[in-house]
Amino acid sequence: MRVLIVEDEPGLVEFLRLELELSGVEVDVAMDGETALERARSEPYDLLLVDIVLPGMSGVDLCREVRRFSNVPIMMLTARGAVADRVGGLDAGADDYLVKPFAIEELWARIRAIRRRYEVNGAPFRFGEATVHLDAHRVVYRGQEVDLTAREYDLLLYLLRNVNRTCSRQELLERVWGFQAPGDTNVVDVYIGYLRQKLDPERRYIKTVRGQGYRLEVEET
Protein backbone atom coordinates (compact mmCIF):
# COMPACT_ATOMS: atom_id res chain seq x y z
CA MET A 1 0.00 0.00 0.00
CA ARG A 2 1.31 3.44 -0.95
CA VAL A 3 -0.01 6.59 0.73
CA LEU A 4 0.54 10.29 0.04
CA ILE A 5 0.26 12.44 3.18
CA VAL A 6 -0.63 16.05 2.35
CA GLU A 7 -0.09 17.97 5.57
CA ASP A 8 1.96 21.03 6.62
CA GLU A 9 2.13 20.28 10.36
CA PRO A 10 5.52 18.56 10.88
CA GLY A 11 4.56 16.84 14.12
CA LEU A 12 1.48 15.21 12.61
CA VAL A 13 3.39 14.26 9.47
CA GLU A 14 6.02 12.38 11.49
CA PHE A 15 3.37 10.71 13.64
CA LEU A 16 1.45 9.49 10.60
CA ARG A 17 4.58 8.46 8.75
CA LEU A 18 5.83 6.39 11.69
CA GLU A 19 2.49 4.68 12.28
CA LEU A 20 2.00 3.85 8.61
CA GLU A 21 5.56 2.73 7.91
CA LEU A 22 5.55 0.46 10.96
CA SER A 23 2.63 -1.33 9.31
CA GLY A 24 4.51 -1.77 6.03
CA VAL A 25 2.95 1.17 4.19
CA GLU A 26 5.08 3.14 1.72
CA VAL A 27 4.69 6.83 2.55
CA ASP A 28 5.30 10.00 0.55
CA VAL A 29 4.76 13.49 1.93
CA ALA A 30 3.72 16.78 0.34
CA MET A 31 3.59 19.93 2.47
CA ASP A 32 1.38 21.93 0.10
CA GLY A 33 -1.42 21.37 -2.39
CA GLU A 34 0.52 22.19 -5.55
CA THR A 35 3.25 19.63 -4.79
CA ALA A 36 0.63 17.05 -3.90
CA LEU A 37 -1.20 17.63 -7.18
CA GLU A 38 2.00 17.08 -9.17
CA ARG A 39 2.72 13.84 -7.32
CA ALA A 40 -0.84 12.59 -7.69
CA ARG A 41 -0.58 13.15 -11.44
CA SER A 42 2.72 11.32 -11.82
CA GLU A 43 2.72 8.61 -9.14
CA PRO A 44 0.31 5.75 -8.35
CA TYR A 45 -1.12 5.93 -4.84
CA ASP A 46 -3.61 3.75 -3.00
CA LEU A 47 -4.75 6.56 -0.70
CA LEU A 48 -4.36 10.31 -0.18
CA LEU A 49 -4.54 11.70 3.37
CA VAL A 50 -5.25 15.41 2.85
CA ASP A 51 -5.48 18.23 5.37
CA ILE A 52 -8.14 20.79 4.47
CA VAL A 53 -6.02 23.82 5.48
CA LEU A 54 -2.85 23.94 3.37
CA PRO A 55 -0.53 26.67 2.09
CA GLY A 56 -1.67 27.90 -1.30
CA MET A 57 -4.15 25.43 -2.71
CA SER A 58 -6.60 24.19 -0.07
CA GLY A 59 -7.23 20.53 0.54
CA VAL A 60 -10.74 20.87 -0.87
CA ASP A 61 -9.41 22.44 -4.08
CA LEU A 62 -6.73 19.75 -4.29
CA CYS A 63 -9.38 17.06 -3.95
CA ARG A 64 -11.47 18.67 -6.67
CA GLU A 65 -8.46 18.86 -9.03
CA VAL A 66 -7.42 15.26 -8.38
CA ARG A 67 -10.93 14.09 -9.18
CA ARG A 68 -10.52 15.51 -12.69
CA PHE A 69 -8.10 12.70 -13.54
CA SER A 70 -8.16 10.07 -10.81
CA ASN A 71 -10.48 8.01 -8.61
CA VAL A 72 -7.80 7.39 -5.98
CA PRO A 73 -9.35 7.16 -2.48
CA ILE A 74 -9.08 10.44 -0.54
CA MET A 75 -9.51 10.97 3.20
CA MET A 76 -9.66 14.54 4.48
CA LEU A 77 -7.94 15.42 7.77
CA THR A 78 -9.17 18.58 9.43
CA ALA A 79 -9.22 20.38 12.73
CA ARG A 80 -12.50 21.94 11.73
CA GLY A 81 -15.67 20.40 13.04
CA ALA A 82 -18.15 22.54 11.13
CA VAL A 83 -20.64 20.66 9.00
CA ALA A 84 -19.97 23.00 6.05
CA ASP A 85 -16.29 22.04 5.99
CA ARG A 86 -17.02 18.34 6.09
CA VAL A 87 -19.68 18.62 3.40
CA GLY A 88 -17.35 20.74 1.26
CA GLY A 89 -14.70 18.04 1.29
CA LEU A 90 -17.15 15.27 0.49
CA ASP A 91 -18.77 17.29 -2.29
CA ALA A 92 -15.32 17.88 -3.79
CA GLY A 93 -14.87 14.13 -4.12
CA ALA A 94 -13.39 12.97 -0.82
CA ASP A 95 -14.39 9.50 0.36
CA ASP A 96 -14.22 10.21 4.08
CA TYR A 97 -13.02 12.76 6.63
CA LEU A 98 -11.43 12.59 10.08
CA VAL A 99 -11.48 15.47 12.56
CA LYS A 100 -8.21 16.17 14.41
CA PRO A 101 -7.16 15.17 16.97
CA PHE A 102 -7.96 11.52 16.29
CA ALA A 103 -6.92 8.10 17.57
CA ILE A 104 -4.72 6.05 15.26
CA GLU A 105 -7.14 3.14 15.71
CA GLU A 106 -9.93 5.21 14.16
CA LEU A 107 -7.69 6.21 11.27
CA TRP A 108 -6.90 2.56 10.54
CA ALA A 109 -10.57 1.60 10.80
CA ARG A 110 -11.50 4.23 8.23
CA ILE A 111 -8.65 3.21 5.94
CA ARG A 112 -9.81 -0.40 6.09
CA ALA A 113 -13.35 0.69 5.23
CA ILE A 114 -12.14 2.67 2.22
CA ARG A 115 -10.00 -0.25 1.08
CA ARG A 116 -13.02 -2.54 1.24
CA ARG A 117 -15.09 -0.13 -0.83
CA TYR A 118 -12.38 0.30 -3.41
CA GLU A 119 -11.40 -3.38 -3.53
CA VAL A 120 -7.72 -2.38 -3.40
CA ASN A 121 -6.89 -5.81 -2.00
CA GLY A 122 -7.36 -7.22 -5.50
CA ALA A 123 -10.55 -9.19 -4.82
CA PRO A 124 -12.70 -9.26 -7.97
CA PHE A 125 -16.08 -7.55 -8.06
CA ARG A 126 -18.91 -9.54 -9.64
CA PHE A 127 -22.32 -8.58 -10.90
CA GLY A 128 -24.36 -10.91 -13.03
CA GLU A 129 -22.04 -12.69 -15.45
CA ALA A 130 -19.41 -9.93 -15.32
CA THR A 131 -16.26 -10.02 -13.21
CA VAL A 132 -14.07 -6.96 -12.71
CA HIS A 133 -10.47 -7.62 -11.60
CA LEU A 134 -9.65 -4.18 -10.23
CA ASP A 135 -6.03 -5.02 -9.43
CA ALA A 136 -5.33 -6.06 -13.03
CA HIS A 137 -7.76 -3.69 -14.80
CA ARG A 138 -9.40 -6.69 -16.47
CA VAL A 139 -13.08 -7.25 -17.16
CA VAL A 140 -14.50 -10.67 -18.00
CA TYR A 141 -18.01 -11.39 -19.24
CA ARG A 142 -19.31 -14.94 -19.67
CA GLY A 143 -15.77 -16.26 -19.46
CA GLN A 144 -14.39 -13.96 -22.16
CA GLU A 145 -12.20 -10.93 -21.55
CA VAL A 146 -13.93 -7.72 -22.58
CA ASP A 147 -12.06 -4.90 -24.26
CA LEU A 148 -13.23 -1.64 -22.66
CA THR A 149 -11.99 1.77 -23.68
CA ALA A 150 -10.30 3.85 -20.97
CA ARG A 151 -13.44 6.00 -20.61
CA GLU A 152 -15.73 2.98 -20.42
CA TYR A 153 -13.53 1.47 -17.70
CA ASP A 154 -13.46 4.73 -15.74
CA LEU A 155 -17.25 4.95 -15.91
CA LEU A 156 -17.63 1.33 -14.79
CA LEU A 157 -15.17 1.93 -11.95
CA TYR A 158 -17.09 4.95 -10.71
CA LEU A 159 -20.35 3.00 -10.74
CA LEU A 160 -18.68 0.16 -8.86
CA ARG A 161 -17.34 2.51 -6.21
CA ASN A 162 -20.83 3.91 -5.76
CA VAL A 163 -22.69 0.62 -6.03
CA ASN A 164 -26.42 0.80 -5.19
CA ARG A 165 -26.27 4.61 -5.19
CA THR A 166 -27.84 6.71 -7.92
CA CYS A 167 -25.29 8.89 -9.73
CA SER A 168 -26.63 11.86 -11.65
CA ARG A 169 -25.49 12.56 -15.20
CA GLN A 170 -23.83 15.78 -14.04
CA GLU A 171 -21.94 13.92 -11.31
CA LEU A 172 -20.71 11.33 -13.82
CA LEU A 173 -19.61 14.07 -16.21
CA GLU A 174 -17.64 15.83 -13.48
CA ARG A 175 -16.09 12.73 -11.88
CA VAL A 176 -15.46 10.59 -14.98
CA TRP A 177 -15.00 13.14 -17.75
CA GLY A 178 -13.71 15.89 -15.48
CA PHE A 179 -15.82 18.75 -16.74
CA GLN A 180 -19.21 20.34 -16.39
CA ALA A 181 -21.57 20.30 -19.34
CA PRO A 182 -25.13 21.33 -20.15
CA GLY A 183 -27.77 19.04 -18.72
CA ASP A 184 -28.98 17.96 -22.15
CA THR A 185 -25.69 16.37 -23.24
CA ASN A 186 -26.05 12.68 -23.99
CA VAL A 187 -22.44 11.53 -23.68
CA VAL A 188 -23.17 9.75 -20.39
CA ASP A 189 -26.18 7.97 -21.89
CA VAL A 190 -24.09 6.85 -24.87
CA TYR A 191 -21.36 5.36 -22.68
CA ILE A 192 -23.89 3.72 -20.38
CA GLY A 193 -25.23 2.10 -23.53
CA TYR A 194 -21.75 0.83 -24.40
CA LEU A 195 -21.34 -0.74 -20.96
CA ARG A 196 -24.75 -2.36 -21.14
CA GLN A 197 -24.04 -3.78 -24.57
CA LYS A 198 -20.79 -5.34 -23.37
CA LEU A 199 -21.66 -6.36 -19.79
CA ASP A 200 -25.39 -6.10 -19.10
CA PRO A 201 -27.43 -6.55 -22.29
CA GLU A 202 -30.57 -7.43 -20.31
CA ARG A 203 -30.26 -4.26 -18.20
CA ARG A 204 -30.56 -6.18 -14.96
CA TYR A 205 -27.79 -4.33 -13.11
CA ILE A 206 -27.05 -0.97 -14.74
CA LYS A 207 -30.32 0.75 -13.96
CA THR A 208 -31.77 3.97 -15.29
CA VAL A 209 -33.33 6.08 -12.54
CA ARG A 210 -35.74 8.24 -14.46
CA GLY A 211 -35.10 11.94 -14.04
CA GLN A 212 -32.06 11.32 -11.82
CA GLY A 213 -29.29 9.27 -13.45
CA TYR A 214 -27.89 5.76 -13.26
CA ARG A 215 -27.18 3.15 -10.62
CA LEU A 216 -25.25 -0.10 -10.60
CA GLU A 217 -27.64 -2.25 -8.61
CA VAL A 218 -26.16 -5.30 -6.93
CA GLU A 219 -27.76 -7.39 -4.21
CA GLU A 220 -25.69 -7.04 -1.06
CA THR A 221 -24.62 -10.21 0.70
TrEMBL record:
CDD domains: REC_OmpR, trans_reg_C
UniProt cross-references to SMART domains, sorted A to Z: REC (SM00448), Trans_reg_C (SM00862)
Keywords associated with the record: DNA-binding, Phosphoprotein, Transcription, Transcription regulation, Two-component regulatory system
Keyword Signal found: no
Family matches, as InterPro entries: CheY-like_superfamily, OmpR/PhoB-type_DNA-bd, Sig_transdc_resp-reg_receiver, WalR-like, WH-like_DNA-bd_sf
OmpR/PhoB-type domain span: 122-218
Modified residues (4-aspartylphosphate): 51
Response regulatory domain: residues covered: 2-115
GO CC, one annotated term: protein-DNA complex
Alphabetized GO MF terms: phosphorelay response regulator activity; transcription cis-regulatory region binding
Superkingdom as given in the UniProt entry: Bacteria
SUPFAM superfamilies per UniProt: CheY-like (SSF52172)
DNA-binding region range list: 122-218
GO biological process, one term: regulation of DNA-templated transcription
Pfam families (UniProt xref): Response_reg, Trans_reg_C
Name listed for the protein in its UniProt record: Two component transcriptional regulator, winged helix family
Organism in which the protein naturally occurs: Alicyclobacillus acidocaldarius subsp. acidocaldarius (strain ATCC 27009 / DSM 446 / BCRC 14685 / JCM 5260 / KCTC 1825 / NBRC 15652 / NCIMB 11725 / NRRL B-14509 / 104-IA) (Bacillus acidocaldarius)
